[in-house]
User: Fold this.
Amino acid sequence: MNDIVEVRDLSKVYTQGHEQVLVLENVNFEIRAGEFTAMLGPSGSGKSTFLNLIGLLDDCYSGSITLFGSKLESMGEAEKAELRRRRIGFVFQFDSLLPEFTVLENVDMPARIAGRGDPAAALALLKRFGLEAIARKFPMDISGGEKQRAAILRALRNRPALVIADEPTGNLDRHNAVTVLEDLKKVNAAGAAVLMVTHNEEAAAYADRVFHLSGGRLVETRGRR
Ligand SMILES: Nc1ncnc2c1ncn2[C@@H]1O[C@H](COP(=O)(O)OP(=O)(O)OP(=O)(O)O)[C@@H](O)[C@H]1O
Ligand SMILES: [Mg+2]
Assistant:
């Protein structure tokens, strides 16, 4: 078995005022090493909620989540933080670059946080994706597409085995969206599994498998080829 993500009977309830809202209901899901998975679903269906649980950004749920063979429910906070830092790269739904740092510094940030900052390695990553021209610029001086591509490279900085991307093409025109998708394809070809949320069927075509989330239920609509 080489599943790197295994989700069993995952349910998630939010409390909104006096109401309990069931956002995920008994979701079952797994990802194998190196697989590119896309998830579609209407706005508010719980896609970000699901990614946040798998990406260790939220630990309030019922059911079980196993990452890289370890059950999250039996892991301590320090162990989870370490797992998140070393093995998972997260690309957020909304612009998340730190405005007071250059693109190069932003891309190097995950390594800096781990005490292994290395601007030369971050620059090499930018070069590999043809983005060296923006390395010294600040986020406010680059385009939305460039920001999203820089955010992807930041997610790659610690060579994660799993890259989670929440609507990475959501705010981009078609040309920039294709560039971002090609970047993710490259990431995937280099060996990382990718879990991408999107609103867009065309974007989902880049994936090996496609899932739909709706009404709290997750359904696989295109299986492994
Ligand atoms: N922190 C929270 N507290 C209460 N309710 C929340 C919270 N976060 C999200 N929700 C609710 O949970 C549901 C799912 O939200 P989520 O952000 O996961 O949707 P989504 O599928 O990512 O939507 P979008 O496509 O618009 O990004 C929504 O109804 C939302 O209002
Ligand atoms: Mg969302």
About this structure: The chain has a mean pLDDT of 94. The radius of gyration is 17 Å. The first helix runs from residue 47 to 54.
